[in-house]
Design brief:
Length: 245
Amino acid sequence: MRIGIFSDVHANLEAMSAVMDAYSREDIDVYYCLGDVVGYGGSPNECADIVRDVAEVTILGNHDAAVAGRMDYSYYYEAARDALDLHARELTAENMAWLRQLPYKHCLESIGVDLCHGSPVRLEEFEYIFAPDQAAECLPILKDLGHITLIGHSHLCKVFGLRPGEVEELPAEDFVLEDGTKYIVSVGSVGQPRDYDNRASYTVFDSDTRSFEFKRIEYDIESAASKIFNARLERNFGQRLFIGV
């Protein structure tokens, strides 16, 4: 089975559309979204509509939780709060109801795949994993993890191999799962990548060959940024799209 996994769309319709077009050439059997459909961008309803339609399961992200009233985001900086407040006002009743029922985690037990937005250790706290010491916090629950845990949140492409008492950061490139190692993989961001590559990020996992692939696709950044500017959101939310940071 070929699985399309993507995350952190952040209301970027142009990026989401480009990713779905690319996926159409990948012979995908099922899609999963790892959260943060909303926040930052100019097209929250359009992106929610697409993800609701294509994803078998969507995981709750922190921006989704904030917009849906499922977490306190008063400590977020002002510009981020403004975007979340705007999206909460703009979302249709159907899309809001959808966000309010999203799960924190989903397990595909038959193929050893776990899905969550941030660290699997404290799901409701949406903690980051982008460094080995953060991945090491998962060692005490290693036996409970699937063979591969797929996450978003950091907007970075990262791979960590975990064995009892040991964490190794591996290159963020295509690889095949090995016996005796469990993996935590950060799949990057569709709508707001932060690894200095401005192309939208998406991934594919083949459960038969146990191979994982990172993929990138160019999209119309100028149009996506213009929507942010026209919505009078923080201009940096649009400007950063051009440089991927």
